[in-house]
Specification:
about 280 residues; single chain; three-stranded antiparallel β-sheet; globular; about 20% strand; alpha/beta; seven-stranded mixed β-sheet
Length: about 280
């Protein structure tokens, strides 16, 4: 599998040069203290890791439960299980860091809670349908922005303890409905969804970091973000999340998704691909 990844790296990085300009711009602006040599080293390591993710993504669609658990191990599951024993749902906040697809696929079999992955659908409907079927084959439920509120309300009203997995580093679509903070040397908008559910239902919030132990093998470690969200000041949860994620990225930057246009929003608009800014109307007036 990883021989294929090595070949893919050479093609993607040296031949095709997939989004190299974007990756370089993101790295340079995020780490102004690093010199050109350091940036290039991170860049190459990122593309090697991304090539691994591509082949692991295909492998994940067909792997058995035992195979996934062997490659994706939770180190302290008891931190989540104790809430299940109390009959409480939880919000699990993470990011597109290291391998996230293994968690989507295995969430429902890794934990006692009913697993719900919250995300965005793929643009290609044919591919999206196939991937969606594979993601849920072990019981994880995948929901999107237009359905997740209804599903969470249903499970909450029926006292079903759920684990909401939310990759909250995605770029929001609306700058006026986002939380803004400094992140990796950028003025950055963050999705508010995880904090919304936590505060609405008073679900404990845990951050989980994913470490790459060796090639193809990952460890997941949970840590508390907020035990009692209903009494927390607004935006404190998403701010703590941003700080935890930033720490992980600074320690091993090559494992984050640098080929994503993360900083395409301004506080009142969207930066277009040609560099111009499209001002967006504030829906709140």
């Amino acid at each position: 599998m990883y021989l294929l990844s090595d070949i893919l790296f050479l093609i993607v990085y040296y031949v095709v040069g997939y989004r190299r300009r974007l990756v370089r711009e993101n790295l340079v602006s995020s780490f102004p203290e690093k010199d050109r040599r350091e940036i290039k080293t991170i860049e190459r390591r990122y593309y090697r890791h991304m090539s691994d993710l591509l082949v692991e993504g295909v492998y994940n669609l067909f792997a058995s439960p035992a195979a996934i658990k062997k490659r994706y191990r939770i180190t302290n599951r008891q931190m989540v299980d104790r809430y299940y024993e109390q009959g409480r749902s939880v919000v699990l906040m993470s990011a597109h860091y290291n391998n996230w697809e293994y968690m989507v696929t295995s969430l429902n079999m890794q934990l006692l809670h009913h697993g719900i992955g919250v995300g965005k659908p793929l643009n290609d409907k044919g591919v999206a349908s196939f991937v969606a079927r594979k993601r849920v084959r072990f019981g994880t439920q995948v929901e999107y922005a237009d359905t997740v509120r209804k599903e969470v309300a249903y499970y909450d009203s029926h006292d079903v303890p759920c684990a909401l997995m939310m990759l909250s580093d995605q770029s929001p679509s609306n700058p006026y409905r986002s939380y803004w903070t400094q992140f990796l040397n950028h003025d950055t908008a963050f999705l508010y969804g995880a904090e919304y559910f936590a505060r609405k239902y008073n679900y404990p919030v845990l951050y989980y970091s994913v470490s790459k132990v060796r090639r193809g093998h990952y460890e997941v470690t949970f840590s508390p973000l907020c035990e009692d969200p209903s009494s927390a000041e607004q935006y404190t949860i998403v701010e703590q999340y941003a700080r935890r994620l930033e720490k992980d990225i600074r320690e091993q930057p090559e494992y984050w998704l640098w080929s994503h246009r993360r900083w395409k929003l301004t506080r009142n608009g969207r930066i277009m691909k040609d560099g111009s800014v499209k001002i967006l109307k504030n829906p709140n007036g």
